[in-house]
Amino acid sequence: MTLTDRGGDLHGAAAARLGDDGQRYTRNRRALVEVLAATSRPLTLPEILERRHDVPQSSAYRNLAVLEATGVVRRVLSQDEFSRYELAEEFTDDHHHHVMCSHCGHMEDVAVPDELEAELERVAEDLARRLDYSLDHHRLDVIGTCADCRRR
Asked: What pLDDT band is residue 7 in, cutting at 50, 70 and 90?
């Protein structure tokens, strides 16, 4: 079920997803969801805490783990030491991929043209079928060196 299916209410959808798992939508969980909803790229924990000084670090770690386990948040691994977090796609109605720097770990969300997205989906479905999988979704991570790292 997408956010749109739940009436477009991000917080209502997050509360419902947590409730389905016997969890509550606490003030700190709501604060983390708000931070992630207000950004255009996955954020590290330090970046999240910079935006919400009122959320203690230990609480942020615990609550991100719960939000990830219930499918509200997705953890995106990069080439550096930090995990990054973003809202799960069903909570954004925004299918996207990532471009990440293999040196500094910087990461950006990117959308591809509809025609290319359709081709990626077709290739993913074909690959899954050949390997006897049922495709849930696909993800494309492009890894390279960002302009800042190339200048260094």
From this structure: very low
Residues 88 and 106 in one domain: no
How many domains does the chain fold into? 2
b/e 36-45 (16+ beta carbons within 10 angstroms → b): beeeebbbbb
Residue-wise pLDDT for 66-92, tens only, equals 999 999 999 998 777 788 999 998 898
Question: Are residue 78 and residue 110 in the same domain, yes or no?
Answer: no
| 63: nearest Cα among 19, 21, 31 | 31
SS3 of 151, please? Answer: helix
pLDDT digits (tens, 9 = 90+) for 110-138: 888 999 989 999 999 999 999 999 998 88
Domain that holds residue 4: 1-94
Smallest Cα–Cα separation from 71: which of 88, 86, 57, 84? 88
- Does one domain contain both 78 and 139? no
- DSSP state letter for 78: -
